[in-house]
Amino acid sequence: MNPTAQSLLWLSEVAAASFAGGIVGSISGLGGGIVIVPVLTIFLHIPIDKAIAASIVSIIATSSGAGAVYVRDRITNIRIAMFLELFTAAGALVGAGLLAGHVHPRLLDVLFALVLLVSLLPVFAKLGEELPQNVQNDRLASRLKLNSSYFDKHLDKRVVYNVAGVPVATFIMLGAGLISGLLGIGSGVVKVLAQEIAMKLPTKVSTATSNFMIGVTAAAGAGVYLRRGWVLPYLVVPVAVAVLAGAWLGTLLMERMSNNLVRKIFALVLAVIGIQMLLRGLGVTS
Amino acid sequence: MTTDAPTRRHPLPIEDASAWILRTGVICSAAVMLMGILFSFVHGRTSLDRMQSDPFEYRPGVIWQGIVHGRGKSIIEAGIYLLLLTPILRVATSVVLFALEERDWLYTIITLTVLLLTLAGLLWLG
């Protein structure tokens, strides 16, 4: 095969895998990076450190794309996002700057698989189905004016909410940032859970705000990866563009289906991938 | 929210500015990156081996030289920078709007700190 055709074939393979990953990521609600990295390493045999570097750059695109829609519709809580970004960005700098590059690829496999499997739990356990009631603002929330409201199209009314558990959430965000910087993912599930369980935010607000924060978290970590030459430009393009396209299509499909079963099937596929990664990391398979 | 009060309407709400920056930044960077791929193939000297090993060049001066010479990889690198700068620019705009429009000094300091943190990896931590 001539060199140009060979290059084109590789780019197409990466793009096809990333496109599929983008669809699965958006329908399962897990996001881009956590699906893309296993897909690239397991199916295309791209080294995990290269996949992580491409992922941390690419998720800036997906989170910004989705983030723009939510913030325009005034569902995102900008103040919560800005305040918590202090911690996710600091965590990402530590994860990317101090930890990444010092962790054995096999251990990365194991860590990644564990984060993936834990992230799947909320898909099966029904969480945040109804609006939180009787929440009191804590001291930090009052001081930072974090309580707000949004218009819920589904309920057809304005939902006013208070914010609790801010100190706990800051610690979790530090950890979420660290995972982002080390594993090249948005840690969206961790962010959403911290906001729903600790801060008692309505689901839509926590999803929108988490999406908004992921871009900044990833940018803080990605700066380190770019500066150190860990990012392969020719890998980033097919991944970033195809994940973006896949995520966009996934959102369109979601609106039509609104079927929880499909979400669960996708999540099951991801569970199999996570277990495969875990076995590889533990040296059971190669 | 202040949007209910017609007397205190902001000429440029942070939400709308952010949404515009995020959308425009992502679309532009994707377009530039794809153009870079196109240029790589027009110039034709991009072997699979190099695609799988050539690292990102972060020095803007070198990237600029490459763009002047029509190198696909440099155009892609410019696109990647554009993508990285998209959320950073969103934060920078929030700093200005919190200071000038909202006159909220606490949040001006918070957003300014976030801005410095996002730039730290690229500028100092390498």
Structural write-up:
The complex is a heterodimer of chains A (286) and B (126). Chain A has one domain. Helix content of chain A is 74%, strand content 3%. Chain A contains 11 helices and 2 strands. The two termini of chain A are 28 Å apart. In chain B, 38% of the residues are buried. In chain B, 74% of the residues lie in helices and 0% in strands. Chain B is built from 5 helices and no strands.
Identify the notable features of this structure and list them briefly:
heterodimer; A: 286 residues; 11 helices; 2 strands; 74% helix; globular; B: 126 residues; mainly alpha; 5 helices; disordered N terminus
Strands, helices and their partners?
The complex is a heterodimer of chains A (about 290) and B (about 130).
Chain A (H helix, E strand, L loop, with lengths): L2 H26 L4 H12 L3 H25 L5 H22 L5 H20 L14 H5 L4 E5 L4 E5 L4 H18 L4 H11 L4 H25 L5 H25 L2 H22 L5
Antiparallel strand pairs in A: 1-2
Chain B lengths: L13 H30 L4 H4 L8 H9 L3 H29 L4 H21 L1
Helix pairs in contact in B: 1-4, 3-4, 4-5
**What percent of residues of chain A adopt helix (DSSP H or I)?**
over 70%
The average pLDDT value of chain B, as a whole number, equals: 89
Shape of chain B: elongated
CA-based gyration radius of chain B: 19 Å
In N-to-C order, the SSE pattern of chain B is HHHHH
* Secondary structure category of chain B: mainly alpha
The oligomeric state is: heterodimer
Report the uncertain regions of chain B.
1-7
Care to count the β-strands of chain A?
2
Question: How would you characterize the largest beta sheet of chain B?
Answer: none
Q: What is the ordering of alpha helices and beta strands of chain A?
A: HHHHHHEEHHHHH
The greatest interface between two protein chains, and residues involved on each side, is: A-B, 60 and 62 residues
How many separate domains of chain A?
1
